[in-house]
Structure formats: C-alpha cells, structure tokens
Amino acid sequence: MADFITPKEKSYTDWYIDIILKAKLADYSPVRGCMVIRPQGYALWERIQSILDAMFKETGHENAYFPLLIPESFIQKEAEHVEGFAPELAIVTHGGGEKLEEAFVIRPTSETIIWSMYKQWIHSYRDLPLLINQWANVIRWEKRTRLFLRTSEFLWQEGHTAHENKKEAKKEAKTIFSIYHTFAKNYLALFSYRGEKTEAEKFAGADITYSMEVLMKDGKALQAGTSHFLGQKFAKAFNVQFQTKTGNLSYVWATSWGVSSRLIGAIIMAHSDNKGLIIPPKLAPIEIVIVPIGKQNVKQMIMKHAHQLFKKLSKKFRVKLDTEDQKSPGWRFSEWELKGVPLRIELGPRDIEQHSVTLAVRDTGEKHHVTLEELPVTINKMLNDMQERLYQEHKKFSLEHTFYPNTYDAFKQIFNNEKLGCAIAPWNGSPKVEKMIKEQTKASIRIILSQKDYPLQGKKCLFSGQSAKHMVLFAKAY
Amino acid sequence: MADFITPKEKSYTDWYIDIILKAKLADYSPVRGCMVIRPQGYALWERIQSILDAMFKETGHENAYFPLLIPESFIQKEAEHVEGFAPELAIVTHGGGEKLEEAFVIRPTSETIIWSMYKQWIHSYRDLPLLINQWANVIRWEKRTRLFLRTSEFLWQEGHTAHENKKEAKKEAKTIFSIYHTFAKNYLALFSYRGEKTEAEKFAGADITYSMEVLMKDGKALQAGTSHFLGQKFAKAFNVQFQTKTGNLSYVWATSWGVSSRLIGAIIMAHSDNKGLIIPPKLAPIEIVIVPIGKQNVKQMIMKHAHQLFKKLSKKFRVKLDTEDQKSPGWRFSEWELKGVPLRIELGPRDIEQHSVTLAVRDTGEKHHVTLEELPVTINKMLNDMQERLYQEHKKFSLEHTFYPNTYDAFKQIFNNEKLGCAIAPWNGSPKVEKMIKEQTKASIRIILSQKDYPLQGKKCLFSGQSAKHMVLFAKAY
C-alpha cells in the first residue's frame, strides 16, 4: 500500500491527499467543496470531541443546539459580521414546496441566532454568566477547497458565552484559548505560535481574536483555533441588556470560540511520513494493534494467545486485534503503518515460545523484543515517549523554520520560496503596510506576538523604517 | 415553580409544553418550525447518544459524516423516495453570492448521498458488509410542529448498511430493531408495540419498515424508532453492484434505521407529572442531587459535609451538588422536582447529627431517612426500583388503554374521544379499507403485529367482514 503514496519530497500536496484517500480518512463528495469523513477519519474527530468536551465541561460549559437556519435579516444586524460572511453564505429560498417570504442562510457561525435567544434568556445578573457550547456543522461557501483544511461544510464546536463585565468576558476568551493550547500541545503534539489577530485579520464582529497558528511542513501556517472577545457588539445588535447588581441596565459582554475538523488536517500534515499517517498516541483511536502471524498449522494456537493478550491489554489501552488471515504479514504491517497506529505488536510462534512479543514503533520504525511481563510498562513508556517525541520534533521543525530577517529583501526571499517557513519581524502597526506586504509577498500577519515573549526593544519597523509597535508573525496561510 | 405548570388533566398539550419551557429543556426559535435545545434538554440527548452509540459499536458499526447538502437530482433517483420526501424539502438555490447551476436539498435523510458514495467504495464481497452510522441534523419542512415531537429540523442518528444478500440485510434490520427495543425498555422505561408498517405507512423507499410505537398518555401513538429493510432499491437507483464470492455481479442489499430527538418528547409525555419532568434513572444526566439545608450559622459546616458526601457518591453515581444559597429549601426542592432528578438528598443539621440523610424519591414523593453507611446500597436499590416502576407503570397504562373492539362501531367510539387509547383489530390487508378507516376515524394502522404474539385464529376483518390477513394496531399518531 505504502508504495502508492506520493513521497512528501516530490509533492507535499499530493502526499497529503494520498494519505487521506489511502488511509480512508475522507473522500471527495459529489457536492462541490464538501467532503465525506469516513470512519477512520471520523474516529479522530470523535477523540477530539470527547477530550475537548470534557475540558469544556470541567470549566463549567454546557452543550446546547441552535437551529441550522438563520433568518437572512439576522446576519445583517451586526455590520462587520455581515461584511465578513456575506460572500460565503448558502441561501435557502424554498421550503415545503413554496418560496419563502424571508430567505434563510445556513449558519456560517451562530452568533446571530444565539444572541437572538440570549435576548430572551438574559434579564438579570443572576442569569450570567451563560456558558454554552455547540457541536455542529456549518457552511461557508469556498472557491478553493482542500480535504479537511478548507471545505464548504465542516464540523466544529462553537462556544458562545455571555458575561456581566468586560473583565470576565476577556478572562473567558483567554481561558478557552489556554484550553486550546493545552489540547494542541498535549494531545495533538502540535507546537503553536499564539497571539492576537490584527484588525484586518480578526473575526468579523470581534474586538479581539486570539489565534493559535501551527506551522505545516510546507512552511505555511494553519489557523488551528480561535477565541474571540466580542465586546458588546452582538449584545447591542440584538439589544441584550441586563439588570446589574446595582440595579442599572447594561449591555452584556460576549465571547465566542471554535475549533474545527481542520485539526485533523493539521495532525496529518505535521506528523505523517511517506509510509502514511502518524497519530499522536494520546489522540489515537487505536493505540496498539496486535498482528498474529503464523503458518496454517499454528494459526489457531497463535490466535488463542493473541486473544488472551488482547483481553489483557484492553483493560489499560485502546487495542485492536487484527483478524485478517488472507494477506501476508508484510501487507498487514504496511496497512497499519498507513493507518498510523502508534504501536504494533507482532505475535508469531517464536514470540510465544519465548513468552515475548515484537513491538514496532510507528514513527521511528524501531522494533523491540519485550517479554509479556514487561509489556504493559514498556507500552506505557513507549506511548509517552512517542507523544513527547512528536511534539519535540514539531517544535524543532517550527523553530528551525522561523526566520528573523533584518531587511525587507531578506524577508521577501523567505516567501519567494527560497526558504521554507515563517518570519517574525517588527511592524509599525499600519494596516496599509500590512496590506502592501501581503500583496507583494502573499505572506500575511498571522498574529501579533506578546511583548513579554518577543520584546520590541526599540526596534524599527522592517517595512517602513518607522518605530515598531509590535513583533508579528508573518506566514503564507492555509 | 411547579404552580406554573398547567395540570395534565386540564390540558395535556399545555402541560407538555409547560414542562419543556419551565424545565428549560427547549425553547421556540425565531426560525418557524425549528426549536432550540437548551442545555437541560441537550444533556438528555447526550445520554441517548452515548448509550446508543456504544450499542451500535458493540455490534460492529462505525460512525462517519456525509454532506448536509444533496444534489436535487439524487433525491429523484429512487421513485418512491422522491414522492415521499419532495413536499418536505428545504432547497438551497444560492451559494457564495451566485445562483447555483443545480439546486441542493438539505438532507431530509441521507440514503441518496450515501449510496452515491457506496457506489465508489463497494466493488467486491470483501467490501461487505459496510456498517455505517451518522449522528446528524436533518430538515423536513413541517406545517404543524410541536417541541421535540415534530420540528422542521431535528437531530437523529441514521444507520446505512450494505450487505451481500437479502438474508443478512434483513438480519441487520432486525438486530438494530432489537437494539432500539432494548434501549427503549431498559433505559427510557418505555413499553412499546412493535411490528411492520403497512405499504401505505412505510418509509419512502423501503421494502419493509419495522416500527416501534409508544402509547402516550393522551392515547396517541408515537413512532419512536424505525428500521428499514431497503431491498436493492437504492443499489439499483445508484447502480451499486459487487462481485460475489462466485464471481458474479449482484446488486447490494441495504438497510437504514434511525431514532431522533423526538425520543425526548416520548420520555416527557410517558413519565412526567404535574410537578414537572420525571427522568428514568438510567437515562438521567443527574441521578442524585444533594441539597444542603441550614441557617446562616451552620451553613459552612453543612456545606463541608455536603462536599464530602458529593465526593464519595460521585465515584459511583452521577451526582450534582446544589450550591444555591439565596432561595428557600422548598423552592429548591420544587426546582429539582421540575427538572426530574430521580433522587434528592436533603442534608440538614439534624441529618448530620444522626449520621444520616433524607432521601426523597421523585416519582413516588416518598422520603426516607437513611444512614450514611447504608446510603450507597439504598441509592442503588432505589434507582433500580424507580427504573423498573416507571417501565411497569407505562406498560400497565399502555395495556389498559389498548382496546379490542368487536365491531366497527365500538372501534369508532374509541377514536371519537369517548375512550383514550389505541385498538387492536383484525384487518383484511386492503389499502382501501385502511384509507377509509383513517378518513373516518383519524386512526391509522401503526403496525402489523406478529402472528406469533397476536394469532389470527380465523378472525374476520372488523371493517369488511372478509377474512382477516393481519392483527394490526390502530391509533391516532403524533
């Protein structure tokens, strides 16, 4: 199977698509721009859902479900919001055999429909905070799509919270942003740059957008999760006021935040190799696959041992027993490598004789002989090591491909495809300069970096020579 | 709070809606016919999802996700299917600011889009069976809607399986039907009648529809779950053939099956009372609420004990600690009764002195003093007893409101609102007779009952006097 994957070095794009199609993570659909998420891919989404959902619930959030359809007039109530989303809308004009009086849009995001409900639910400070999350599908009509990374329909979670004051709302936006970072680092093994979006790049309707940017192996940045402090914009658009503790009326403060099924694309791109998918162990739906090997005369005996081992390991790990018996061991090994299972246990007659197994590690390709007695401890260590190794490798790659150019010429060279990666540089804060750079180099400001981590120290703007306002991260973006 | 619920005896409809709105299970939305599922209601859906999902996975099914939008031409490929669904479709005519060349429908069910993919995935008997389930939203434009029971958008799961032969496909449809029954009985505490739909009532595109019908307290039947043997209809419509073991080409055999968020409506209607919701313990998101009670001077001491108890019980049960301290105990008790939590632990100064608690049972209203030592065992027993009691009560109600009329006049009296319930009667199998009865009485044939459980014994059709073909269940339907 592995032979059929285009090598990464030959074409990163083809390599990426090959992995998705061959590992059966997803498929193209007859609906332009929309994909089918196949069981192997959906299992990754289920893991993402269950881990994040628990993190949201631990911090006091509850799930709910709001209508898919939004009256067209709602989208228009917040000026920036409609400007940002209008070009991407799918519009329902007919229902039940009749033309509708008012058209509906399919939600591209749910702020407007949710705030129309919050108006009915929020009257007093006693109704706050309101901490609601929704797991849902959304549609944003896209011209150029790529499996997982950019599709017209995608799956996501969208949190929408309401607060008494600015401070609490900002704190909420940051709390969630920190959850996203923890999740990306500890589960997805992804290193990320984090910071605030510029005015030009922030969410349509936000006061502040916090974004987590992850560097892919082709040097492009992927926006992997955003958390927005919305100020009072949606409360004002939908006239949501509440009685404060002191008896005054005040507009409600808001946040919204989301991550989507594009995270699956990030995992594939960041960790996989020419043999196929590599899944970080903590995320993997299957941590270990047991592959019994043996000729006809010993098959039954081996399968018996394999079942025993499966039963024993299942108590501690997510295990799969491979019962395929038509294909060669080599074919089956390649197949499990393609699917990205972190550890493979090979169990043959000699292993059984020696009360041991052969343990193959997906990313390094190493094989170890391990006694049955040592097996659970060894598995645990190898899974943890692999998790840490994938993160460190991605971090190393990201840092090695982050450049600090000293001149605009050096900057341009990076994005001329002479180098692979992103750039950190001082910027004077001017939207005009930002626009010019994007036009000239196709690199955009992904985020404004924190001055604590990236001190300005009196630097001059690389592009204007004026005094710099921020250190910012530039990259071509997915 | 309970005062605000219209008594069931006064208006069943208002009582039902009051419970939903006051217990904050759901709310009306600004999108006609669509509801908002609020956190209290969505928590029930999450329980339904997690329990059923585990049952599907245990029987070899995997989850996937297919596009929301279906090309209009796909829906038209299966003649019965389009006839059944055309009047209920929501149509997307514009996307990304342009009129679309071909319109899309929002999925009312996904057979057509899924079978267009199965054509690409199924080539050989080795690709079968294909056992896929999808958790999704669907839209069927409804004129008359009622919260949870009938809404234009609803949440559901839809299974779509593909098989080598008729026998396996039929077996699959029955396996799932049996899962639905087990789930309804053991978790939802619902008694159901089960059987096949008539030609007139079956799913648009099915050869056989198995349906589970649940009697509500107003005497109407609710179709609570259906499993369809689809024969080769969709395989033929999408030309899905496979190479058999013997090397021939054959059309694939199919099933589809689903339950939806209307199950939440069934639970409310079947079990609740004038104080509010009653949730069967095995389904309840919260099995036990701990309500600490005490005046200002002992509050802190009581809360300390309450936290200890919460920690202890959380290891075995789904527990909530009520930390509200502004409202009176009476108000809080009513509030938890309204929300339907099965057991309430009241913890006051005297309870703590006596190393005991007061345990109140939601459905019977009984209160017991239980020592801390006996508490876990007692809780377990009371939860199990309540689960069984709710089922037995619903079964008793259903059987007492199932009539066996001997004449058409007696039959008509039932559905003239002179009696409350459904009827079982012999029928000659004629669609004309079926249609006439529906027109005259508004009662439809919900299902054909199995001859094993409901023997014909040479009975005559109640309506035509001809020899009967089936014993069938008649009811007005939701």
Automatic annotation (TrEMBL), chains A, B:
It holds the Pfam family ProRS-C_1. It comes from the Eukaryota. GO terms for biological process: prolyl-tRNA aminoacylation. InterPro entries: aa-tRNA-synt_IIb, aa-tRNA-synth_II, aa-tRNA-synth_II/BPL/LPL, Anticodon-bd, Anticodon-bd_dom_sf, Pro-tRNA-ligase_IIa, Pro-tRNA-ligase_IIa_arc-type, Pro-tRNA_ligase_II_C. GO terms for molecular function: ATP binding; proline-tRNA ligase activity. It is an enzyme of class 6 (ligase). Its EC number is 6.1.1.15. GO terms for cellular component: aminoacyl-tRNA synthetase multienzyme complex; cytoplasm. The keyword Lyase does not apply. Keywords: Aminoacyl-tRNA synthetase, ATP-binding, Cytoplasm, Ligase, Nucleotide-binding, Protein biosynthesis. It catalyses: tRNA(Pro) + L-proline + ATP = L-prolyl-tRNA(Pro) + AMP + diphosphate. Homodimer. This is proline--tRNA ligase. It comes from Paralvinella palmiformis.
